[in-house]
Amino acid sequence: MTIHYPNGKLYRPKKSTASKSDTPAKKKINYSKRGMSLEQELNDSNEYYLATNRAVIHKKPIPVQVVNVHYPKRSAAVITEAYYRKASTTDYNGLYRGYYLDFEAKETKNQTLFPLKNFHEHQIVHMRQCSDHGGIVFVIILFSFYNELYLIETKDILPFWDDQDTASGRKSIPLDYIRETGYKLNYSLAPRIPYLEAVDQIIEKHKQ
Fold it and tell me: Among residues 18, 30, 50, 109, which is most buried (max CB within 10 A)?
């Protein structure tokens, strides 16, 4: 099925970027992800939080306009072309401890930095607006080369975004900065990604 963004640009789904060793003898077995995508791990974590009544967090649905449908059989229909009706904002939102959460999930193969081009202008605008209205807004970033996962608040990303158009502006966020400023997330059994532990720390800072 072909899906297009509202501007007509072709949508290409995200691919897993988990690294592999060159030879079986040198391959390091890593049980942390077990072949799951970051999105699926977050979806499973949110299902766990919902089932245990800890939080109500969902992935945002994106309205799709169907353009062409193929009918190989009378009893079956195959969508061959579709467009997103509007640009997406962030991946997830919901409620936790009376606070509104809104966040995006990103993945990169880069070993030293996170490129700002991975964000869209409308995503930054949305995150800024939610943050200005008191929401807890953040990005969960996976550095797949190291299999390191971090939660970083929007307020710590905005200075880089706002500075990128200046003569001396940077086009990326250094990994060292994310390691120092963000919250490292360690995989667990249930939930798979316990990101609410980091959110608890953010809430306590908000109370101070």
Answer: 18
